[in-house]
């Protein structure tokens, strides 16, 4: 294979050109012919069963050369990435065959060029917003985490016929919601199963059920202001028909619970408490670091000179728009319905996403530059330690995680991200 690169400056794009010829291309053409022949649909014959003379009649160069390109595309891209070109892609390329024949193939991988960045200082930054805190796990937090473990072994038993609903009970019921006497869309459920206190319903709904008995009753709930536009802030009356009330019985907090959980190196309740305490502190510290580092990145962006081509920003807006569309769909609304209810147009939504798109791209450029400047490396030992930790955390074999869940490249990238966060956290504030 041969490689060359070029810049399409007027478009803010670049291209990697890979030429495949000789035996390598001849082999790809051979494979392309075999694959195209196997998929040919010839009248009067089943796929792959037509005689050679019929196959030759229907097998056009367009069909088998296209198959040949597909068979070698990934190999050509990997070859291009190994060339350490000065022309570097910022996003996924669009591959296009520009010259193709029986003798050779020229592939052009077109991509947006990485925007220019003249990074500002990224060490020794100070601000009243950059605060580092030391965290502890409270007794309440430890109890709550252990209760989540106890939930795994919870038993349910029917309460007496005249018993009332209490926090922690499991209730099966029908419900229908009304606003100003009119039933509203999505406000009805049959044989709905709910753990009281789980927070699965809108705020106030589960609390209002506490004290209710079997049979019919009503409760009133106000929808939160950040709910779907047609229900936001409105008071609703729900008619309930409670069919079952079950008490949940959790196991005792003792050594037997610790053993039943089958967690690595934990045999006693005291060891379980200590393990939970460590996890809570780690989670709090990770959250703090991420918030802290995001503030650092914003400061670096403000002190850097970054030129973002309009095309790059627009592509990022496209990506953010799709994410926004998914969130709207999660509220059981189509974009058409959302725009009708809010009075917003596509242009309005994209305009609101503009700053987020710029920040996301700028953040990527800044962190990429810091990583390259500091030349973070990941050793085989660090990768193995990460796999061992994950195996212990999830109770799985290391080989299974490597082969079926997280390839080594993903683990390496995760470790690099952790090193970057640690670096920016330690060297600022």
From TrEMBL:
<dbReference type="GO" id="GO:0051301">
    <property type="term" value="P:cell division"/>
</dbReference>
<dbReference type="InterPro" id="IPR037041">
    <property type="entry name" value="Trigger_fac_C_sf"/>
</dbReference>
<dbReference type="Pfam" id="PF05697">
    <property type="entry name" value="Trigger_N"/>
</dbReference>
<dbReference type="GO" id="GO:0006457">
    <property type="term" value="P:protein folding"/>
</dbReference>
<keyword id="KW-0131">Cell cycle</keyword>
<keyword id="KW-0175">Coiled coil</keyword>
<dbReference type="InterPro" id="IPR005215">
    <property type="entry name" value="Trig_fac"/>
</dbReference>
<feature type="coiled-coil region">
    <location>
        <begin position="125"/>
        <end position="159"/>
    </location>
</feature>
<dbReference type="InterPro" id="IPR046357">
    <property type="entry name" value="PPIase_dom_sf"/>
</dbReference>
<keyword id="KW-0697">Rotamase</keyword>
<dbReference type="InterPro" id="IPR001179">
    <property type="entry name" value="PPIase_FKBP_dom"/>
</dbReference>
<dbReference type="GO" id="GO:0005737">
    <property type="term" value="C:cytoplasm"/>
</dbReference>
<dbReference type="GO" id="GO:0003755">
    <property type="term" value="F:peptidyl-prolyl cis-trans isomerase activity"/>
</dbReference>
<protein>
    <recommendedName>
        <fullName>Trigger factor</fullName>
        <ecNumber>5.2.1.8</ecNumber>
    </recommendedName>
</protein>
<dbReference type="GO" id="GO:0015031">
    <property type="term" value="P:protein transport"/>
</dbReference>
<dbReference type="Pfam" id="PF05698">
    <property type="entry name" value="Trigger_C"/>
</dbReference>
<keyword id="KW-0143">Chaperone</keyword>
<comment type="function">
    <text>Involved in protein export. Acts as a chaperone by maintaining the newly synthesized protein in an open conformation. Functions as a peptidyl-prolyl cis-trans isomerase.</text>
</comment>
<dbReference type="InterPro" id="IPR027304">
    <property type="entry name" value="Trigger_fact/SurA_dom_sf"/>
</dbReference>
<dbReference type="InterPro" id="IPR008881">
    <property type="entry name" value="Trigger_fac_ribosome-bd_bac"/>
</dbReference>
<dbReference type="Pfam" id="PF00254">
    <property type="entry name" value="FKBP_C"/>
</dbReference>
<keyword id="KW-0132">Cell division</keyword>
<keyword id="KW-0413">Isomerase</keyword>
<dbReference type="InterPro" id="IPR008880">
    <property type="entry name" value="Trigger_fac_C"/>
</dbReference>
<comment type="similarity">
    <text>Belongs to the FKBP-type PPIase family. Tig subfamily.</text>
</comment>
<dbReference type="InterPro" id="IPR036611">
    <property type="entry name" value="Trigger_fac_ribosome-bd_sf"/>
</dbReference>
<feature type="domain" description="PPIase FKBP-type">
    <location>
        <begin position="168"/>
        <end position="216"/>
    </location>
</feature>
<keyword id="KW-0963">Cytoplasm</keyword>
């Amino acid at each position: 294979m041969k490689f060359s690169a070029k810049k399409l400056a007027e478009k803010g794009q670049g291209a990697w050109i890979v030429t495949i010829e000789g035996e390598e291309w001849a082999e790809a053409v051979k494979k392309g012919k075999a694959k195209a022949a196997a998929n040919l649909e010839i009248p009067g014959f089943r796929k792959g069963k037509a005689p050679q003379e019929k196959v030759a009649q229907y097998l056009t160069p367009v069909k088998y050369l296209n198959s040949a390109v597909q068979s070698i595309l990934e190999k050509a891209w990997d070859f291009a990435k190994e060339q350490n070109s000065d022309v570097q892609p910022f996003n996924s390329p669009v591959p296009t065959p520009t010259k193709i024949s029986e003798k050779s193939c020229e592939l052009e991988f077109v991509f947006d060029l990485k925007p220019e960045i003249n990074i500002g200082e990224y060490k020794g930054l100070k601000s009243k917003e950059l605060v580092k805190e030391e965290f502890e796990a409270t007794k309440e937090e430890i109890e709550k985490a252990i209760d989540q473990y106890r939930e795994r072994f919870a038993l349910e038993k029917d309460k007496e016929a005249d018993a009332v609903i209490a926090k922690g009970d499991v209730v099966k019921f029908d419900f229908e919601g009304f606003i100003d006497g009119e039933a509203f869309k999505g406000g009805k459920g049959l044989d709905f199963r709910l753990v009281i206190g789980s927070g699965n319903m809108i705020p106030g709904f589960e609390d209002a059920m506490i004290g209710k008995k079997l049979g019919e009753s009503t409760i009133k709930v106000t929808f939160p202001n950040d709910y779907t536009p047609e229900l936001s802030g409105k008071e609703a009356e729900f008619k309930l028909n409670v069919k079952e009330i079950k008490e949940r019985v959790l196991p005792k907090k003792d050594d037997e619970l610790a053993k039943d959980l089958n967690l690595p190196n934990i045999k006693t309740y005291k060891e379980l408490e200590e393990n939970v305490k460590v996890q809570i502190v780690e989670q709090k510290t990770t959250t703090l670091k991420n918030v802290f580092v995001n503030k650092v990145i914003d400061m670096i962006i403000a002190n850097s000179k970054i030129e973002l081509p309009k095309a790059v920003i627009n592509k990022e807006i496209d990506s953010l728009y799709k994410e926004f569309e998914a969130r709207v769909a999660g509220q059981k609304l189509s974009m058409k319905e959302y725009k009708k209810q809010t009075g917003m147009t596509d242009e309005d939504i994209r305009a609101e996403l503009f700053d987020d798109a710029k920040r996301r791209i700028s953040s990527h450029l800044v962190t990429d530059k810091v990583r390259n400047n500091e030349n973070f490396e990941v050793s085989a030992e660090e990768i193995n330690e990460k796999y061992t930790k994950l195996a212990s955390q999830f109770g799985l074999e290391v080989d299974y995680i490597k082969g079926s869940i997280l390839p080594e490249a993903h683990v390496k990238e995760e470790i690099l991200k952790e090193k970057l966060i640690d670096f920016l956290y330690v060297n600022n504030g």
